[in-house]
Amino acid sequence: MVxxxxxxxxxxxxxxxxxxxxxxxxxxxxxxxxxDESDAIILPGVGSFEQGMENLKxxxxxxxxxxxxxxxKKKFLGVCLGxxxxxxxxxxxxECKGLGWIKGEVVKMTPENLSIPHLGWNNIExxxxxxxxxxxxxxxxxxxxxxxxxxxxKESIVATVDYGQEITASMRFENIFTTQxxxxxxxxxxxxxxxxxxx
Amino acid sequence: MLKVRVIPIxxxxxxGLVKTKQFGNPxxxxxxxxxxxxxxxxxxxxxxxxxxxxxxxxxxxxxxLVKKVMDECFMPVSIGGGIxxxxxxxxxxxxxxxxxxxxxxxxxxxxxxxEAVHYFGSQCISISVDAYKKKETYYIKHSNSYLIxxxxxxxxxxxxxxxxLLVNSIxxxxxxxxxxxxxxxRVDSLxxxxxxxxxxxxxxxxxxxLFLQTKIKAVGAASIFHFTQYxxxxxxxxLLEINIPVRI
Lengths: 199, 248
Known about the structure:
The complex is a heterodimer. Chain A is an alpha/beta fold. In chain A, 26% of the residues lie in helices and 34% in strands.
């Protein structure tokens, strides 16, 4: 069973719907015992970094998630804000500590002559772990974000996207896999990626 | 490279799909869940779903119907109609909306928009900018008697840091004789927020004109899909011919 963490940061229903479509059992939950029983954990979410961390803290999920991911080494997927929160530090809207599972920061994007947020379908360029993208025809994925993840170690970057500059689109470090784009909103290309990773 | 988005706009009256002309004369055009199913199977870039009478009839959007529509969609969906509170936004996000679209409340309570952006993040809050032209000046349509200039409204939305502006030309709505390119360029010059151009797309050439004469990255349309044989894919193929990047 996949636990989809419900921490009041939106968009959990779409992830559940995508997994149901793929016939992967999942539960939207903030219940510690259900999360503990899960085989894999998804941290979805949209919204501000600071609010996200505050909500995780208020639900006493930080220690639990640290234990599940860092000690028990459960398979983890972080999407959008869920990718950003695994970093050490964010700045949205104020400087704030993150989960710190991957070294690096989340900073405001400042592309010249381009709109913010980075909003819409954009093609990614795969750097490693090609196997996750097996059988996927189109590498256009749906993005919607104003901040970008800058990992210290570029080795963790799975894919990048071009938006005025090269931006981290996906990372993997041990049992942690993350996407800045929304696989649950990216039709076939997204559903297949979820299946390849979780199925 | 970021692709241009072609977005079907589904306007409904609480239960059925309707299409207006210049924001009047709503005509029934079908069933919302059926339409969502068709658009999902066609792999459209995004859907916009608007209850255009919720605010004026002072009622909430029909959540069970919206949920049925959402169940058919594996693409991003923006939903609007009668949003008055943080709780209203939460209700829509809980059933899978990616963005909410606010109009009436943005005209009467800027602080609410700021609060919504702070709580949910910019990317979640889209604003519907319904503009008409009178003696070379654009104004925002609303139910009160005073005039709101387009420039002033866009400036206040910049200040709120909303995530997207859906710019509707009321003069062109449902007329199918081309976009109000002057309006779109005027808004685009006033903001760095992404703009969706809506109102007037009636044949494939109108979409070419729009992207050749503006720098925006998204277009919304309704009548062309209800009343002609063209699909979103036909529009995208047309844009590809003139080297506008699209997702096929």
